[in-house]
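Quick one:
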Amino acid sequence: MNLFLKFWRLRFTEKAIFFKCIFLLNYYRIRLKTTPLQTLLAEIEQESLEVSKQKQHYGIMPQTLISIIRGASRFAPFTTCLSQTITGRSLFAKNGNHTQIHIGIHKDISVNFAAHAWLSMDGKVLLGLRSDLHQYKEFTELTLFTSKNK
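Output:
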């Protein structure tokens, strides 16, 4: 019941973003299975450049957008940190925010292979924050351009 009340209290635009987020989480999860990562990241970069040219953005607070993405992730089966990060990047770009995708691997080789993805803005982790994030060595960073890079 609590989730329903939270959803009910969202503005119409935020509800629309919630449903779009569920779609994007599933879309990118499938794309990650069928498309090489480098190709997908290049497409995301191109999409972000196109979005940056648009004048109309969502205009919602980043914290609200984070909450929407986390909430929608509960309704998208098999969501991974990477699909969540890519979805977040897409929605933040449409909100007019400059973000970066980070992908890292666990530094401790005695641990089974572990990779993690997170999204940051202005040096602050928005999505994918973990208590052991410092134990991941970043091996790629993708700067995504939005309205700040016109």
